[in-house]
Amino acid sequence: MAILKSRAIGRKILRQVRTSYWFWPSTLVLGALCLAALVEWIDTQPGLMRDVLPDWLTAIDPDGARDTLSTLATAVIGVAGVMFSMTLVAVSFAADTFGPRLIGNFMRDRGTQFSFGLLLGTFAFNIVMLRSVQGGDAEFVPYAGLTMALFLALISVFTIIYYIHHVPETINVSNISSDLGHQFSASIRELIAERAKIEVEDVRPALKAQEIGVTLAACGYIQQLDTDALHNCACDSDWVIQVERSAGEFITPHTDVLTVLTVSPLTDKQIKVLQSAFATGNDRTEVQSTAYFADQLVEMIARALSPGFNDPFTAMNCLNWLHAGLQDALLHNGGLRPLTTQRVRYPHLDFPALFAVSFGAALPYTVTDRMCRARHLALTQELLTRATGRNRDVIAALVPALRTGPRERAL
Which UniProt keywords apply (predicted)? Predict the structure, then answer.
């Protein structure tokens, strides 16, 4: 049971660490402290640094070393505060302009995390070196530490240059939509690859099997669902499990997340094992929820076409990225075909469902703008020429609404 629980909870924790703003800065600070300890040890080796370093680095007294390290530490921590303020302004601007659900994309940005962490690490390194400087009779100047401090200061200068360039790039609307679009397509391709590995078993529940619902003692969104754990548990106990709520859906303690078809009643231990395959949280995430990327692009379309913004070009750009993802769902390695598993039954995202949450969900907003409606129609017709069967019928159903528009339908 502990293994199953740690698998779902562990993945959730890894995602939270990835989207956090403390992990990499904290790691770099700890790394700087370890580096400071190593360099200080090197400095304690008699005559080693004086023989290796040039005279202009070793010709400094304790007072000069203190002044240098103190100046570097003060400058670096001041710039780090400015960088943090710029980051908050950028995140606030993005949340107000493009939607609060996009904050996670900025929090995951490694460039910002490493830039902030490098400056904090440089500050921590200078403080430790400043403590090791000694005057008087036991005079000690950490020449290697001073050299490393100057090197880190130089790296920090280039980091600041990179950061000043990087922050405007992160709030560029084209970069935001393209990042979401690439993640949308990558998630679809990954889903297709994973689905090709699934072996469908011909399993039927026992004749006298009864349906037993399983709930979670939690209220929120399902962030992780360990289907492998459920499959192993169903095989060991000869169950058939129907997953009622998938990743990304909202649940309450009164919502059945599973229905187990079993001959004998479930024990408390078995119920806990099944519950441990789920991890919940306060917000919806993109993990195991490909449609969430489509929702974010649709939200950008809605905001771009709102009266306060009136930006049809951003909306058309988002439509282009949705179209690219839908093409992958339609054509990549046979496309996103429907699948029905027998041992553990749960909804498998297919092309019609993905089309509904992307192009279908964008319809109420694009029909209000002539340019966006024309672009939406052109992209839909292009998909129509490549689709067959039920997928073609789903796409074709959207064409009349795009052709007529709101005024013609009202008349």
Answer: Membrane, Transmembrane, Transmembrane helix
